[in-house]
Each structure stands twice: as structure tokens, then as C-alpha cells.
Amino acid sequence: MTGLDIVASVLVLSGVALTVTAAIGLHRFPDVFARMHAASKPASLGLALTLIGTALALGGADNVTKLLLVIAFQLITAPIAAHMVGRAAYRAGTELSSDTTKDELADAPDTQLDP
Amino acid sequence: MNIVTAIALGAVTFAALLALARLFRPGSLADRVVALDTLLTTAVVGIAIYSARIGDGVYLDVLLVTSLVAFVGTVTMARYIERRGA
């Protein structure tokens, strides 16, 4: 096992740990917005760590290019997707958890669905 | 590297099963969209680890397409929820 393999293994395992955390958070957190908080961050960092680890293990210019493309694409799209799901869920009137202390959008004009 | 990828694939399978269980648990539509997005991200991670395990890059194109489809699907479902309500 070379040094490169060890670095790749550490990166892959930490990315996988983040992925498992996201999946556990989906069950443990109280409402949609808290679940998105659990799910959407590992979607960028966990994926990036795993793919960098894979790139180190595989090598080769074509493989590394494809993996970097996936990382770049995911870093751009994951926040957009999370933002759109959150906005849609709020506008559709999804219930907030009873632990919520402050809802800053409560009296904003443009947060309800059109009738 | 073989042992590491075996452990990682096991953990990814566990995560995918948890996300699938969330998908079938009662909840709002937004809950299911978040679960499905997580499931697809987990699948991308799993495919990447499998490519590292077999030491061949043939599945990396699948990776690219899966992450594209996951994004388009999530955005489409978000638009749908916004029109129809949860």
C-alpha cells in the first residue's frame, strides 16, 4: 500500500462517513428544513472528498477530468437544488417543527402560493 | 485498498437503505424529494468507490449522467411542489 493509496483511502472513508451522516440525519431531524440541512451539505463536501479519493486511486488524465467535472457540477447544482426545494416546501405551507423559535418569513409578502 | 473499498461500499449500502426507508416513511412530498436526492447522491458515491475498487474508469460516465439527472429531477419536483402544494 503506497502513500497515495493511504491518502485516497482516508479521503474515501471520510466522504462515506459524511454520506452516512446525511442518511441518519434524514431520520433523526424534526422537519423538512432541518432534514435538508442534514442532507444537502454532505451532498457537496462528502461527494467531493470521495471523488478526489477515487481520482487519486485511479489516476489517468481522462478519469481525473471526468471526476473533477462531476465535482464542479455538484458544487454548482447542490445549493441551487436545496434552495429550490426549501423555497417550494415553505411556499407550499409545510409545517415547521414545534421546536422552531423564529420564523423570519412569517410576514413576508411573497411567501405564499398564489390562490 | 480492497479492504477499504469493501468497508466503504458496505457503509454506502447502509446509507442508501436509510434514504430508501425515509422515502417510504409517511411524510410530505418535499420530504420524499430530499430523500430521493440523498439516495441519488449516495448512488454516485457508491459508483465512484466501485470504480476505484475495480481500478477502471468505465463507470465514470454513468456518474456524470446520474448527477445531472439528480439535479434536473430535484428541480422539476420543486417546481411541481410549488405549483401544487405539499
Question: Strands, helices and their partners?
Answer:
The complex is a heterodimer of chains A (115) and B (86).
Chain A: H1 3-28, H2 32-58, H3 61-91
Helix pairs in contact in A: 1-2, 2-3
Chain B: H1 2-24, H2 29-54, H3 60-84
How many DSSP H or I helices of chain B? 3
Number of strands of chain B: 0
N to C succession of SSEs of chain A: HHH
Cα separation of the termini of chain A: 63 Å
Shape of chain A: elongated
Largest β-sheet summary of chain B: none
Count the domains of chain A.
1
Helix and strand composition category of chain A:
mainly alpha
Number of helices of chain A: 3
Measured as a percent range, the helix fraction of chain B is over 70%
Oligomer: heterodimer
CATH architecture descriptor text of chain B: Orthogonal Bundle
Q: What is the CATH level 1 assignment of chain B?
A: Mainly Alpha
Overall mean pLDDT of chain A stands at: 87
Summarize the entry for a quick read:
Chain A is mainly α and about 120 residues long. Chain A is built from 3 helices and no strands.
Structure overview:
The complex is a heterodimer of chains A (about 120) and B (about 90). Chain A is an all-alpha fold. Chain A has one domain (about 5-95). Chain A has three helices and no strands. In chain A, helix 2 packs antiparallel against helix 3 (about 60-90). Chain A is elongated and about 60 Å long. With about 90 residues, chain B is mainly alpha-helical. Chain B has one domain: Orthogonal Bundle (Helix Hairpins), CATH 1.10.287. Chain B is about 85% helix and about 0% strand. Chain B contains three helices and no strands. The interface between A and B is large, with 53 and 54 residues.
